[in-house]
Amino acid sequence: MIANVLVGLVALVHLYIVYLEMVLWNTPRGHKAFKLTPEFASASKVLAANQGLYNGFLAAGLIWGLYLGEAGFQIKVFFLLCVAIAGLYGAATVDRKILYIQTAPAAAALIVLWLGA
What is the DSSP letter of 69? Predict the structure, then answer.
């Protein structure tokens, strides 16, 4: 139960990231969230939308795992690992805060999921 709540929260975070990257990238809210200048945001909006799509796939995979219930254990583990690894890479190459926004919640969900299995 707790594991599924955590998996759901990770999925919701990624749905919000999709919204930020695909819809709000070129707005003051998107600029603030990603520390962008308006010029850079405008020049990179297509790349951001592509990145948002990938985050949407991560969220979809987690939601799929939740939908399957106990049968979705391996799917949840796979997509949580993908989220955690992507977060580690993002923290190392873009901004350390990604470690706390993406990697830590995914790692917590993985641990609770494994302990409950």
Answer: G
